[in-house]
Amino acid sequence: MTDTTIEPPTVSTRRAATMDKVAALCKRRGFVYPGSDIYGGLANTWDYGPLGAELKRNVKDLWWRTFVHRRRDVVGLDGGILMHPRVWEASGHVVNFNDPLVDCRTCKSRFRADHLIEERLGQHAEGKSPVEMTAILQAANLPCPNCGNRTLTDARQFNMMFQTTIGPVSETGTQVYLRPETAQAMFVQYKNVLATARVKLPFGIAQVGKAFRNEITPGNFIFRLLEFEQMEIEYFVKPDAGAAAFEDWLSAMRTWLRSVGVRDEHLRVREHAKDELSHYSSRTVDFEYAFPAPMGWKELYGLANRTDFDLRQHQEHSGEDLTYFDQETNSRYLPHVIEPTFGVDRTLLVLLLDAYDEEETLDVNGKPDIRVVLRLHPRVAPYKAAVLPLMKKPELAEVARRLFERLEGEVGVLVDYDETGNIGKRYRRQDEVGTPFCFTVDYDTLEDRAVTVRDRDDMSQVRVPIADAPAWLRDRLA
Ligand code: GAP
What is the pLDDT of residue 363? Predict the structure, then answer.
């Protein structure tokens, strides 16, 4: 084995992640860029770069495979972002999907009243009415967080749905909304799915797609966005089977989180109090994640018992009979619905935060150095492997290229190929983007037809015959 590939021992400092460090790495390495960057950005919009797009695709594919392909009781749907405006009247979003806001009369800044109460006064405010929130803010005589003047208005409701117009002229066109959740297409198409997909209760409809919310206090990198993706399942059950299905989904969501490598100690399940339940829910629990300070515990995913609320509302508003005919009992009823919901962008954020690590080590000159490593689960890592010829020489490149093509083709995963810079720097680059294995082709390879495989996590190295390399990688990823 060639000496240049041997690295010094290190000391790990797990939980080194801060939002700023992870955001900086994401920009530096092409995971996430500020939206419209060359125009100075558009607040709280972000674009996923080449590696972010891969990470996101891996998460969504894995989710689809886990909850749709591997289950006999869930089918997929890919609904539109624009729906009939009456959908949102029936669903209750036009009336109920509001955030409580206060304005500052002096500097005109706008804030979410519940966030101000939680962050500045340390009180739980979700679910309180605007009148109750106004009373709390006035009792505390809270100054504006921006200008310091005590000139905050009363709290008032602000609908979070984005509106747009179908048709060329805005005055005569139809006002529609960009969907604020993917869920409604599953309720609206429930009858078509029932008629065409040969499903029987209990069964679920799953969807992955964009949702839009006019959030007033977005921020914290990709935590709260105006435009984001959801992976949702509406699971239809007999009216008396909701409670048991809820427990099953709670456990399925935990299993999913483990399977993508989120650490248990950063997760907790929180039951919603009655006064904070959404308008459609009889029971909700949030999976919360321990985000780095100052954020603390915040919602990652939700699980709700939506009862028959949505089907009943759509039945009433559309005039269509949405009851289910139960052949066993020879009766008709509206199914109840359990809804596990997973934010894609929050999943990515949590995976990046959990994976980010810094290790104290020595650089090639023996000076103290920090190794930044993304310990992403190989299932979700953008590159599963990298092929690195030790030097940029034709005889090494030829073998390395062939190995790259075999790994890519025979294992069927994304592999990087990098021949620029010294090998130590190339390893560090792969560490920072979470590549689990680096295959180095060196001069010994030309003699013994074997390569050095370096493990991202402990930097250990093993020699693997080139002929066995695809099978070796496939085994490690399985
Ligand atoms: N259909 C139910 C529903 O939409 P929700 O709790 O409002 O429930 C579900 O949203 C998930 O969507 C959240 O748990 C979170 O992961 C994600 N999410 C919600 N709002 C978001 C936002 N503004 N930015 C990013 N992700 C968001």
Answer: 75
Nearest CA residue ID for atom 5, ligand 1: 302
Residues facing 74 on adjacent strands: 204
Buried b (16+ CB within 10 A) or exposed e, 381-403: bbbbbbbbbbbeeeebbebbeeb
Spell out which residues line ligand 1, taking CB within 6 angstroms: 181, 183, 213, 215, 224-225, 228, 230, 232, 299-302, 339, 341, 343, 345-346
Residue 334's φ and ψ, nearest 5 degrees, are: -90, 125
Cβ neighbours for 238, distance < 8 A, ≥ 6 positions apart: 201, 202, 326, 333, 335, 336
Helix (H, G, I), strand (E, B) or coil at 377: coil
Report residue 2 as tokens.
């060639």
Name the residue ranges covered by the structural domains of the chain: 59-95+161-352, 98-159, 383-477
Distance 222 CA to ligand 1 centre (A): 12
d(CA 179, CA 46): 19
Question: For the chain, what is the total number of helices (H) and then of strands (E)?
Answer: 15, 24
Asked: is 383-477 a CATH 3.40.630.190 domain? The reply is no
Looking at the domain covering 98-159, what would its CATH class be?
Answer: alpha beta
Which residue's CA is the closest to the ligand 1 atom numbered 14? 301
| CA 211 to centroid of ligand 1, rounded, Å | 9
CA 75 to chain centre: 21
Taking only the tens place, the pLDDT of each residue in 1-59 is: 444 456 665 665 556 789 999 999 999 999 999 999 999 999 889 999 999 999 999 99
**Position of tokens 């080449």?**
50
Both tokens assigned to 104: 């500052």
336 burial level (CB within 10 Å; 0-12, 13-18, 19+): buried
CA of 230 relative to ligand 1 center, distance in Å: 7
Specify the DSSP element, H or E, that contains 423.
helix 423-433
Q: Is 192 exposed, middle or buried (0-12, 13-18, 19+ CB in 10 A)?
A: exposed
Ligand 1: centre distance to CA 313 (Å): 22
Q: Which of 263, 338, 251, 350 is nearest to 300 (CA)?
A: 350
Q: Give the DSSP letter string of 227-281.
A: EEEEEEEEEEE-GGGHHHHHHHHHHHHHHHHHHTT--GGGEEEEEPPGGGS-TT-
The arithmetic mean of pLDDT across residues 115-124, rounded, is: 88
Give the C-alpha separation, 299 to 289, whole Å: 6
* Domain 59-95+161-352, architecture per CATH: 2-Layer Sandwich (3.30)
Q: Record the pTM.
A: 0.92
